[in-house]
Amino acid sequence: MALASFKVGAKELFIPDVSIALLRTPGLPANNAKFHVPLWFSKLDLRDYLFHVYGVEILSVRSYVKQSRVQSGRPGLTRPAFKRWHRPRSTKFMTVELARPFVWPEEPDDGYLEWGLKENNDVEKENTKWQELEMGQNRDQLVNEERRERMREQAKALLEGKAKWKAPEGRTGKDFRRGQ
């Protein structure tokens, strides 16, 4: 490995326990790269990490911390808790200027989109079926199409005079017919 053109840090790191993500940013020039890093990571840490692990020289580093929006409730609660606010953990991004440009490889064709498509569609249909069966409070809003069609036919027969209306028996234990 070549000698660094900058002063190398003295922190020895044999097995890195951090995850650094290189983000695809089509709006940046080829000699810039954007990384998602842990909050405690410094510019010098990223510069030394990229030099020692990948042999990449960096000319400059810009970093910024993106705050998350304030949310109602507390983290970890399933129900919303009103009048309680918290701010989720912030995220840190670093943009580096590379000594040599890096060009992303072309994205693969759309062949990977069909991968597992049938299985995903089957799972989605099964999930929607279960959600319709077990909707809980909104269960009464489900429409039974077969029952609706039977009721439509009965109403049509009553209006045309083909059938005569009979009160349902045995449900309440009382007979509502007059004279009895």
From TrEMBL:
Coiled-coil positions: none
Highest taxon of the lineage: Eukaryota
Keyword NAD in record: no
GO cellular component: mitochondrial large ribosomal subunit
GO molecular function per UniProt: structural constituent of ribosome
Disordered, as annotated region: 147-180
Assigned keywords, A-Z: Ribonucleoprotein, Ribosomal protein
GO biological process: mitochondrial translation
Transmembrane segments: none
Signal peptide location: none
Stated family: Belongs to the universal ribosomal protein uL23 family.
Protein name: Large ribosomal subunit protein uL23m
